[in-house]
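pasting input
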Amino acid sequence: MPNPTAAMLVIGDEILSGRTRDANMHHLAGRLTEAGITLGEVRIVSDDHDAIVAAVRALSKAWDAVFTSGGIGPTHDDITADAIGAAFGVPVDVREDARALLAAHYERTGSDLNEARLRMARIPEGATLIDNPVSVAPGFTIGNVHVMAGVPSVFQAMVASVLPTLTGGVALISTSTRIDRAEGDIAGPLGALAKEFRDLSIGSYPFQKDGRFGSNVVIRGQDKARVEAATARLAEML
Amino acid sequence: MPNPTAAMLVIGDEILSGRTRDANMHHLAGRLTEAGITLGEVRIVSDDHDAIVAAVRALSKAWDAVFTSGGIGPTHDDITADAIGAAFGVPVDVREDARALLAAHYERTGSDLNEARLRMARIPEGATLIDNPVSVAPGFTIGNVHVMAGVPSVFQAMVASVLPTLTGGVALISTSTRIDRAEGDIAGPLGALAKEFRDLSIGSYPFQKDGRFGSNVVIRGQDKARVEAATARLAEML
């Protein structure tokens, strides 16, 4: 049976302007692979209502699960909750359980639960909350979409909260073989190997180091014996 | 006049599996911002023909220019040229000028221009070549789509080849102000600032450091005096 699939939507002008280098995508990709869930697509869009709505709809339809990051804080450019509500056609309002979480947290820390912070309790109707052990303001899940914060420490905590609730597949086994020859010299044998082991994914990832070209050949599959057999054949061939 | 826009399409299973952390997106984002071109969307798809075709068509239609990275090497998993040909409805074949570049290069380096390497001379009909000073095998431009290699050193060289051929806009001026207060405390004043300076983009990018929350407030615009005025107002407010 094929593994469940997922997509990610990164929301944030700061990634697209080159100001910030995204860290959340790489983190999520690794966690999903460990869980036996195939990350099939990532999109990065700006803090734009229509762009977020269109991307959420397209990804939610095409993949088993969608993870978003960014845009759920208290400032004027945090518009993700409203866009998700629009994508699902449901109203978004302050919800009592989310407000209670925030009220208790800010009372404890001596901060004010002002109007801006209260925005973080605005949750689309019908969503369930995602626990945020780092800074309390919750993420939420609606349909197959998991909406999480952009700050990496909070994003990672929310991923850890959500992943155990998902049904994963069989974790992929992989081997990586470094070959210090140009891809053009190994492409023929690699193509033959890929034909022989059609049940596996065989990828060639070229690199350049100290002016010389080489490639890491990664062999992935669900069956350990098959992956090992293909890796042994690769070693024989090259 | 608004700046020209662009999108990027990253092609590669290795990014989606978490094996490799993409570096090309961050590089391109920075170069485009310097050139006054707005990067509006990024998509990452796997080495899958239909996924590449669909993404190229959607992005090419929605944005002024599209930059792709990955999948133009000599191995069996390098399928980008064929997918681009399919997206534009044109045939893809070995082209004499690209073959000549490769032949001269491999003769010089004492390598064999074998069948696998010849794949790198397969160019969609009507495309123009993108110079590759690092490893010779060219990228290509067809319509508004610039097709480039995934190896970062080669990708960067190709970006440097392409960018001077594009018409850029006015480079954005930006200031960044670090505020060591939680976003919830500054969200009210920031919203008021954004309303006062509607011609500017004002973003709040929260961070967590040593257990405390803060935010970098970035103010961007084309008019230096306006950006400076907003930055001064921000300092007064907070």
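fyi Residues 206 and 215 of chain B are 4 Å apart (CA to CA).
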